[in-house]
């Protein structure tokens, strides 16, 4: 045991999977007697859980690494996550970095840190990144506790086998590995018994859950097991690929009140040629049919999406096709990304790259459309009653609380923070800044 309690600070960039991993790491360090502190504080150990989905993510990761060492020059700086996994030598060559650990074998990180503190020199610049040369089982890194008491993320699988031409994630996260259903059930049961009202199932490719397991189980089966947990009030799905939203899943969501009426289905482009070049496994007509089927069965469902602008070769007309299709579908929220070449992906080798100024213009147009569509969706609820999971104070609205409806609308209303973590009924009076504004009834 260490002579004094060491302080560890964690920062996580990128997706909800990264956030889950960072929380699990914090739990492991706490269990071994470390004190977890805010990343802005002076600590003995800094762990930066990185993202590499864009050039901007890489830059933010490097900034956090340097910021950590400035706070405590003698601290141990450990870099984990996708940037470390894909570019370990680049990360290792950052002067402030002591340990590079990637996305695998994170459960062993505490042991490594203690080994270093027992006397092994940090000058060796440990590189613990392991490749994905053979199929590995899902690595258990369960979340034992969280600081909040509203929603909790539960990771059900890791990795992806799709290899879309623009995406670095399969190289960073490896092949599909599904978590054993009993482990998922146990974690959800534990978290809901501790007071969490909403569980969000997350992963890299959750729609493929179970495909690598010997037992005959898929995502819909897993949902049926989870909704039988008495203490579970809400179950939300994170991003799910279009080809995985099948009639059985739609029917189950429509019939099961515990599952949130919200599906985040990445479109990426509304042009068939661009979709083919991206390596996506659907076309515009199939996506439209999917939306019609979903809306026809799930009442008041919210459909949100991801879009990439400026993919190599995207013409003005192809962008207009995307813009028109997005308006037609009328998503309730858009996440817009400018294409960023990732070394190692096929699209990075394409010669017809789009100029940054064009990407910026197209991005701004879609972001503006997204705000318009979000307002239109929210306006439907004026005068209606909605159920809201209370999360926090509303910031710019003194005396107001903020929370989410099951179909992913943000609502604000007067109330005491004692209601945090409770599901309340709110009568919507108006829409302000795309927020539902109302009163608890």
How would the blueprint of this fold be written?
Elements: E1 7-12, H1 16-31, E2 35-37, E3 45-50, H2 55-71, E4 76-81, H3 82-86, H4 88-92, E5 99-102, H5 109-117, E6 126-127, E7 151-155, E8 157-158, H6 169-173, E9 177-178, H7 181-193, E10 198-202, H8 219-226, E11 234-237, H9 247-255, E12 262-264, H10 272-278, H11 284-297, E13 302-309, H12 316-329, E14 333-338, H13 356-379, E15 385-393, E16 400-405, E17 410-414, E18 423-432, E19 435-440
Parallel strand pairs: 1-2, 1-3, 3-4, 4-5, 5-6, 7-10, 10-11, 12-13, 13-14, 17-19
Antiparallel strand pairs: 8-9, 15-16, 15-18, 16-17, 18-19
CATH architecture of the largest domain: 3-Layer(aba) Sandwich
The CATH superfamily of the largest domain is known as: Methylthiotransferase, N-terminal domain
Distance between the termini: 54 Å
Stretches where pLDDT falls below 50 for ≥5 residues?
Answer: none
The name of the CATH topology of the largest domain is: Rossmann fold
How many strands in all? 19
Assign the CATH class of the largest domain.
Answer: Alpha Beta
Q: Structural class of the helices, strands and pairings?
A: alpha/beta
Tell me the major beta sheet: 6 strands, parallel
Q: What's the rounded overall pLDDT mean?
A: 91
The best one-word shape is globular
Strand order of the largest sheet: 2-1-3-4-5-6
How many independent structural domains?
A: 4
- How many helix segments? 13
What is the strand content? 15-25%
**Fraction in helix:** 25-40%
Q: What is the subunit arrangement here?
A: single chain
Radius of gyration: 22 Å
């Amino acid at each position: 045991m260490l002579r004094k309690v060491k302080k560890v600070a964690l920062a996580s960039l990128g997706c909800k999977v990264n956030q889950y991993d960072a929380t699990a790491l914090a739990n492991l360090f706490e269990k071994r007697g470390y004190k977890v502190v805010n990343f802005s504080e002076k600590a003995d150990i800094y762990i930066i859980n990185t993202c590499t989905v864009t050039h901007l993510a890489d830059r933010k990761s490097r900034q956090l690494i340097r910021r950590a060492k400035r706070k405590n020059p003698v601290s141990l700086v450990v870099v984990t996550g996708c940037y470390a996994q894909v570019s370990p030598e680049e990360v290792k060559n950052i002067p402030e970095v002591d340990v590079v650990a990637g996305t695998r074998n994170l459960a062993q990180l505490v042991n490594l840190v203690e080994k270093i503190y027992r006397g092994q020199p940090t000058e060796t610049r440990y590189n613990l990144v392991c490749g994905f040369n053979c199929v590995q089982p899902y690595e258990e890194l369960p979340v034992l506790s969280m600081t909040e008491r509203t929603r909790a993320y539960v990771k059900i699988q890791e990795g992806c086998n799709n290899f879309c031409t623009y995406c670095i994630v399969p190289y960073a996260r490896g092949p599909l590995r599904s978590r054993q259903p009993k482990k998922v059930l146990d974690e959800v049961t534990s978290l809901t018994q501790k007071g969490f009202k909403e569980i969000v199932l997350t992963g890299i490719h959750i729609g493929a859950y179970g495909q690598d397991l010997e037992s005959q189980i898929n995502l819909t089966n897993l949902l049926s097991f989870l909704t039988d947990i008495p203490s579970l009030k809400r179950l939300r799905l994170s991003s799910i690929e279009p080809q995985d939203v099948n009639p059985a899943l739609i029917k189950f969501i429509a019939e099961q009140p515990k599952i949130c009426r919200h599906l985040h289905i990445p479109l990426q482009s509304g042009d068939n040629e661009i979709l083919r070049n991206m390596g996506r496994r659907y076309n515009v007509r199939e996506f439209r049919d999917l939306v019609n089927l979903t809306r026809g069965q799930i009442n008041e469902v919210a459909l949100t999406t991801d879009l990439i602008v400026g993919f190599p070769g995207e013409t003005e007309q192809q962008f207009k096709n995307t813009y028109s299709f997005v308006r037609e579908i009328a998503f309730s929220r858009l996440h817009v990304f400018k294409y960023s070449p990732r070394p190692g992906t096929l699209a990075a080798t394409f010669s017809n790259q789009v100029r940054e100024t064009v990407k910026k213009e197209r991005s701004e147009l879609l972001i503006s459309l997204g705000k318009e569509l979000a307002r239109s969706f929210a306006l439907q609820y004026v005068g209606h009653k909605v159920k809201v999971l209370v999360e926090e104070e509303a910031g710019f609205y003194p005396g107001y609380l903020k929370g989410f409806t099951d179909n992913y609308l943000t609502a604000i209303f007067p109330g005491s923070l004692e209601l945090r973590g409770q599901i309340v009924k709110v009568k919507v009076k108006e829409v302000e800044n795309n927020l539902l504004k109302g009163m608890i009834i």
